[in-house]
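Hi R.,

Here's the chain you asked about this morning:
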Amino acid sequence: RRDGATDEEWETANADPPTGWTWDNQDSTVANENGTRKSFLTLTKSNNASAHSLIYKNVPASPNKTYYAAIQWASDNDGSGNNCQVGLVLRNNTSGRLIVFVVAANPTPNFFVVRWTTSTVFSAIAYQSTIAPTCTISEYLILAITSDGTNLNFKYAPLHEGGEGNYVQIYTETISTFLTSFDSFGVTILKNSGTTNRLFCDWIRVV
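And the predicted structure, written out as tokens:
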């Protein structure tokens, strides 16, 4: 059952950040909510090596849900090199710790699950895909993190003509390993090189 209070379809044009969302390390990043017929959120980042810039909001009262984001990224480097990471994030609001689940091009698509002590302080790579996954970087992907109260399960699926493909689970981590707990979720972008990189988010849903 979807949690309507936490779903986000970006259907109205709002301020930066969109209503109900909060920046962590906004840095050079600009959020644009395009509330047109094809509504989406764009995060545009111009500074290099400034860690993650994310918008987040509180999780539901019962946080053991699956958090989904339909995303795509674009780069002025045409996807060559590990120049941009975009994806889904869970955040501990007390400590500032993050678990980010991102897709990057290096130069083919790769998935990473990365621990950050704060949005600007890297901790460790928990998971990195070793082969190119069955997806295309220029198309929308669905990233998902499921919490059962003990573990976080990370999976992805292609987005085909508005429908979800078969999910592939790629990593599991106990919440106590790093986050301890989490209070919020959101989307994030990290830029390593180039002039401008963008995250496009079609929707976020909580089930």
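The chain has no helices and 15 strands.

Let me know if you need anything else.
M.
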